[in-house]
Specification:
binds magnesium ion, globular, about 325 residues, binds guanosine-5'-triphosphate, three-stranded antiparallel beta sheet, Rossmann fold
Length: about 325
């Protein structure tokens, strides 16, 4: 099921938008209050199940239309899910391209456009519009601190006043590492042990355009400490950027997104994109959950190795088209 997240000031308004955007038979999966009103997660019922062979396994190889199959094979190799590819194929069936035979030259471009439209980017992560105070959260070792450093350095380069707070007093030398970086960047740095500490540090930096909060890496399978982090971040009104390693398998990606969902994921950054040849699994999970994608991190270098998410470029990579074939 392709899920859509719809936020509105009131619950009836959100439900009305769900009906308008997902149809009268939309399935409401979750409703919850947010800082800005109400969030409703809804989706359409799954399309009919793919065919199964005699052993009961899904026969993916034969199910694509002839024209779409070469693209589907490339995107499957990239890691994209069957659900996303079915959605793309279905959308293409309603267009002028010829899907019954391979080789329609318009097909790669259109497929890229459709996929790009499914990837919701979130450029506001690099602005103070709703993201003035931004906490980086996620599993251990995914690149939260490195991504924070990249975002903070880019903000400083743009002339913004930046402050850094860390809640990570758990990992050895984490504080010293970030303090040294803050000194290098010449921005205020605070260590917070509690919600009150974070609030105080935010108050102390009231003049900052952007405040970045680093957090301790938490395994999605030990959910015990996540509610505490959730309370702290909600209390101080921080937006959350979930860092997920691009090479994470689909099932594990879902585990991470489910575990962090209660924090209210405002956007996802796929890190270590350079380390995997199948980033489509994590990407598809983000798209299927209706989450917004802010950046791809493509290496260790600060601040160079970060790219604003661009659905067109990602789609071109997934279908292995010439970048010029993808929409700008
Ligand atoms: N190749 C590659 N390495 C990265 C990327 N982002 C971070 N790293 C490396 O991954 C390692 C862990 O990065 P950190 O930023 O410390 O990760 P973290 O999520 O803060 O880790 P914890 O705080 O321990 O949970 C470091 O060696 C980084 O240089 C990336 O996009 N690509
Ligand atoms: Mg860290």
């Amino acid at each position: 099921m392709l899920l859509k997240r719809i936020e509105a000031k009131t619950l009836p308004e959100a439900i009305e938008r769900v009906r308008a955007e997902c149809g009268a038979d939309a399935l409401v999966v979750e409703t919850r209050p947010t800082r800005n009103g109400y969030l409703v997660v809804a989706g359409k019922q799954e399309p009919e199940a793919p065919p199964r062979d005699q052993a009961g396994s899904t026969t993916f190889l034969s199910k694509w239309t002839k024209g779409f199959r070469p693209l589907a094979d490339k995107a499957t190799d990239f890691g994209l899910s069957q659900t996303i590819l079915r959605a793309v194929e279905k959308a293409l069936l309603g267009t002028r391209v010829e899907l019954s035979r391979p080789g329609d030259p318009a097909l790669p471009n259109l497929a890229c456009r459709v996929l790009a439209a499914l990837i919701h980017d979130e450029p506001r992560v690099e602005s103070s519009d709703g993201f003035q105070t931004l906490a980086l959260v996620g599993p251990t070792g995914v690149g939260k601190t490195t991504t924070l450093a990249k975002l903070a350095a880019r903000a400083k380069e743009r002339g913004e006043r930046v402050a850094i707070i860390t809640l990570d007093t758990y990992r050895m030398a984490a504080v010293e590492q970030l303090r040294a970086f803050a000194e290098l960047l010449d921005v205020p740095f605070s260590v917070a042990l509690s919600t009150n500490d974070v609030r105080r540090a935010i108050d102390d930096n009231i003049q900052a355009d952007r405040i970045f909060i680093d957090t301790t890496g938490k395994s999605p399978r030990s959910r015990g400490s996540l509610p505490m982090l959730e309370r702290t971040l909600r209390n101080v009104g921080a937006s959350t950027l979930l860092c997920l390693a691009a090479g994470t398998r689909a099932r594990d990606s879902r585990l991470v997104l489910d575990a962090y969902e209660p924090l209210g994921i405002d956007a996802v950054c796929l890190t270590k994109w350079d380390e995997t040849c199948a980033p489509g699994e994590s990407l598809a999970t983000v798209v299927e959950q209706g989450l917004r994608l802010s950046h791809l991190c493509v290496g260790q270098e600060v601040p160079a190795d970060i790219l604003a998410a661009d659905g067109g470029q990602i789609a071109a990579a997934a279908f292995d088209c010439e970048p010029s074939e993808a929409p700008a």
